[in-house]
Design brief:
It is built from three helices and eight strands, in the order βββαββαβαββ. With 191 residues, it is an alpha/beta fold. It starts with a strand and ends in a 5-residue tail after the last strand.
Length: 191
C-alpha cells in the first residue's frame, strides 16, 4: 500500500507506476488516480467531487452533513488513542496523518512518499503551492511539529505494521519516528 503526501520530493515520481493500493491527499486527484482520497479541508472534498473523482473520499465528521448526497464521501477513521495535547485533538490532524491512519486499518506493509515534513527553503513545500485552495509559493514553510507527533503516534501504536519511508538521502528521520518497524529508503529507487 502507498500513502502519498504532497511534499515536493515526489514531484518526479510517476505515481501511475506504483503497484498496489494508493491513498492520496487533497489535490492529488487533479493529476493522478488514487484508490482513496483524504480531504479534511472541505474545499478540497468539494473540488474532488467537482472533478468527478471516482474513488472513496474521506473528510472530517464536522463536514459530513454537507456531503450527505454523495455515497462516495465518508468520515476519516477515529483516532486510535486519546491524547492530552493539542496535536492529539482530531481537528488538528491534517490529511497526511489521516491518510496514514487509514492505511494502518487496511494493510500491514505501508510505503510513504511525499511526506517531506521540512522545506528545503523558507517557503512552503507542496507540489500544489500557488494553486486553487493552496497558499502562494512565497508563503512561509509549515511547522511540521504536529505531523511529526501524530505520525509518530501511529508508528508507535501500529508496531505490528511495517513502514517504509522513501525520501532524499539528505532527509533525516525525526527522533519520534525511530521504531523497529520503520525503514527509510532512497526515493531515487522509485523514480
Amino acid at each position: 500500500m502507498w500513502v502519498i503526501g504532497n511534499g515536493e520530493s515526489r514531484k518526479d515520481i510517476d505515481l501511475n507506476n506504483l503497484k498496489g493500493t494508493k491513498i492520496g491527499c487533497n489535490a492529488i486527484c487533479r493529476d493522478h488516480d488514487v484508490d482513496y482520497l483524504i480531504c479534511v479541508d472541505r474545499r478540497m472534498a468539494k473540488e474532488a467531487l467537482e472533478l468527478d473523482y471516482k474513488g472513496q473520499i474521506f473528510t472530517r465528521k464536522d463536514w459530513i452533513n454537507e456531503f450527505s448526497a454523495y455515497k462516495s464521501v465518508t468520515t476519516v477513521p477515529e483516532l486510535p488513542y486519546k491524547g492530552t495535547t493539542r496535536p492529539d485533538e482530531p481537528f488538528h490532524w491534517g490529511s497526511g496523518p489521516y491518510a496514514l491512519l487509514l492505511a494502518c486499518t487496511l494493510a500491514d506493509e505501508i510505503n510513504l512518499i511525499g511526506f517531506d515534513l521540512h522545506s528545503e527553503t523558507k517557503f512552503i513545500n507542496n507540489v500544489y503551492k500557488g494553486t486553487k485552495h493552496y497558499n502562494e509559493e512565497t508563503y512561509r514553510a509549515v511547522d511540521p511539529r504536529y505531523w511529526i507527533h501524530q505520525i509518530g503516534k501511529l508508528f508507535e501504536l501500529y508496531s505490528d505494521k511495517t513502514f517504509t519511508i522513501y525520501q532524499k538521502s539528505s532527509w533525516e528521520l525525526p527522533k519520534a519516528w525511530i521504531h523497529p518497524n520503520i525503514k527509510v529508503d532512497n526515493i531515487s529507487i522509485i523514480v
